[in-house]
């Protein structure tokens, strides 16, 4: 593809020794975002389920 | 107002554990400090001032625990509101009395300990005066914190208000550096006095708003 | 005329249905643009001369800190509105945003600390921005714990609004005072007035990441406020017929 900075998959993962930091931060970042999005979705779903059971 | 001042002074004076305790704890912290360091004058002086300021901070944080609690529990606070006595004035007098009986002795003790450790009369005097000013700020902020969690009786909100006084600690650190290298330290004194003037005027109104909300 | 326009937003019911409509578009659009920004930044942006490849953490760290500070601004404005105009929706905003703000600040702190290891060789450093972010985190935690310690929700709302306003006054003070104290963190590369000191090829994905992350956080905030509305107005008719 045009001008990708890394030649191969292994150099993408390794990134001259700095790869581990970038990938760890990326994983934590994605975990926090998905956690926050799903947290409220599940809570609203449970609330609506309880609400419909009562009515 | 004189009558109120005398009543509050008398009330706190009678509860000896409330005001003598913190002063003795502060003394104990400062006396215990040289025991933890290998005796050598230069090493003691490096972090002595930090222990002084932190000891005062922690002692005052734990000593404002029941500043409003008794009045809240036995209904005196309700009486103040019902009889339209100005609640900010009461709060100001309470903080002032606590400062008089706990803050001023801590200030005098800081002066004495600074004199003992550094043997420089002028700088110790300055440290004592600054300690008096800063103690009032601590009392005001931690009473604010205390009034937030009044009915729970815990220290939770006082801990939450600890980040609010961190700039004061940073200013004190810079003041000590300026003092040691004989730079211009008057600017820091003026800064702290400015903060004190804002705190004296605003905090009683804030706290009385919160107390009224507690009692509704 | 303007009064009517603004007053209709003070009703939780209007807010719930309007945000229900907006949410899917905002959420998925932000996710897609965030993915584009991240892939562009991590795979395609050029290597930094000084820091090597680890600078790519910037595409996650900077949006998180920017969002953390904007969320506190949102809390401060909402508490001001609640205390002066007694709009209940503003209290719901303060309560729900404090949890999200705490998680985002935690993310900013962790990413900054991991970035510090290859760059400065240390996990932690007591300099201006790091200390201010840590204090912001403690203030968010204080707001959450204070609200949870009350049984009476009206009192709890009032108290966290007061605490949020007092903390808001303190944040610039902390920023200024810790600035005197020491500076190790890089000064701002993107300012409004001068030419940015960061290269253009790195700047574009960064701007995309910042704005899309902000959009994503606003979508999550909308959902959190919806949940708070459902909880608090449980007994109203319009909720029971959802």
Instruction: Work out the helix count of chain B.
Output: 10
The poorly predicted ranges of chain B are: none
Q: What is the CA-CA span between the terminal residues of chain A?
A: 57 Å
Percent in helix of chain B:
over 70%
Largest sheet of chain A: none
Radius of gyration of chain A: 20 Å
Mean pLDDT of chain B: 86
Please give the number of β-strands of chain A. Answer: 0
Largest contact between chains: A-C, 30 and 38 residues
Main β sheet profile of chain B: none
Q: What spatial form of chain A do the alpha-carbon principal axes imply?
A: rod-shaped
Task: Note the beta-strand portion of chain B.
Answer: under 5%
Please report the total strand number of chain B as a whole number. Answer: 0
Class per helix and strand makeup of chain B: mainly alpha
Order of helices and strands of chain B: HHHHHHHHHH
Oligomer: heterotrimer
Count of the domains of chain B: 1
Task: Describe the structure in your own words.
The complex is a heterotrimer of chains A (55), B (216) and C (242). Chain A has helices at residues 9-14, 19-54. With 55 residues, chain A is an all-alpha fold. The termini of chain A are far apart. Chain B is mainly alpha-helical. Chain B has one domain. Helix content of chain B is 83%, strand content 0%. Chain B has ten helices and no strands. In chain B, α2 packs parallel to α6 and α7 runs parallel beside α10. The model of chain B has no long low-confidence stretch (mean pLDDT 86). Chain C has a domain at 26-43 and 73-184 and 199-234. Chain C has eight helices and no strands. Chain C is globular. The relative contact order of chain C is 0.17. Chains in contact: A-C, B-C. The interface between B and C is medium-sized, with 23 and 22 residues.
């Amino acid at each position: 593809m045009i001008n990708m900075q890394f030649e191969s998959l292994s150099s993408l993962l390794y990134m001259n020794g700095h790869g581990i930091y970038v990938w760890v931060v990326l994983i934590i970042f994605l975990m926090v975002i998905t956690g926050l999005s799903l947290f409220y979705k599940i809570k609203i779903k449970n609330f609506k389920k309880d609400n419909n059971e009562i009515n | 107002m004189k009558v109120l001042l005398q009543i509050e002074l008398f009330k706190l004076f009678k509860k000896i554990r409330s005001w003598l305790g913190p002063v003795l704890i502060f003394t104990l912290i400062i006396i215990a400090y040289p025991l933890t360091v290998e005796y050598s004058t230069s090493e003691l002086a490096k972090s002595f001032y930090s222990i002084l300021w932190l000891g005062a901070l922690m002692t005052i944080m734990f000593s404002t625990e029941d500043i409003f609690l008794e009045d809240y529990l036995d209904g005196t606070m309700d009486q103040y509101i019902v009889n339209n006595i100005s609640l900010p004035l009461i709060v100001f007098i309470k903080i002032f009395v606590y400062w008089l009986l706990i803050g001023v002795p801590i200030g005098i003790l800081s002066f004495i300990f600074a004199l003992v450790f550094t043997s420089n009369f002028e700088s110790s005097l300055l440290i004592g005066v600054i300690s008096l000013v800063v103690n009032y700020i601590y009392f005001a902020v931690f009473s604010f914190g205390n009034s937030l969690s009044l009915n729970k009786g815990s220290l939770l909100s006082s801990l939450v208000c600890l980040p609010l006084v961190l700039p004061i600690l940073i200013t004190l650190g810079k003041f000590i550096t300026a003092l040691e290298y004989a730079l211009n330290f008057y600017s820091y004194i003026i800064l702290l006095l400015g903060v004190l003037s804002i705190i004296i005027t605003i905090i009683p109104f804030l706290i009385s708003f919160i107390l009224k909300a507690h009692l509704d | 005329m303007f009064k009517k326009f603004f007053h209709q937003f003070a009703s939780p019911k209007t807010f719930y249905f309007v945000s229900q409509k907006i949410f899917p578009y905002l959420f998925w659009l932000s996710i897609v643009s965030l993915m584009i920004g991240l892939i562009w930044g991590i795979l395609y942006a050029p290597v930094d001369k000084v820091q090597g490849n680890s600078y790519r953490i910037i595409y996650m760290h900077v949006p998180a800190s920017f969002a953390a500070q904007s969320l506190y601004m949102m809390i401060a404005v909402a508490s001001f509105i609640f205390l002066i105009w007694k709009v209940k929706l503003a209290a719901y905003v303060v309560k729900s945003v404090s949890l999200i703000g705490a998680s985002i600040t935690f993310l900013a702190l962790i990413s900054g600390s991991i970035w510090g290891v290859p760059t400065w060789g240390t996990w932690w450093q007591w300099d201006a921005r790091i200390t201010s972010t840590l204090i912001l985190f403690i203030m968010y935690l204080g707001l959450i714990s204070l609200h949870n310690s009350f049984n009476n929700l009206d009192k709890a709302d009032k108290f966290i609004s007061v605490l949020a306003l007092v903390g808001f006054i303190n944040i610039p003070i902390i920023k200024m005072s810790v600035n005197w104290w020491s500076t190790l963190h890089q000064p701002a590369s993107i300012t409004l007035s001068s030419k940015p000191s960061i290269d253009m090829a790195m700047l574009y994905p960064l701007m995309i990441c910042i704005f899309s992350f902000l959009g994503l956080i606003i979508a999550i905030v909308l959902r959190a406020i919806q949940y708070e509305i459902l909880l608090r107005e449980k007994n109203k008719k319009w909720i029971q017929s959802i």
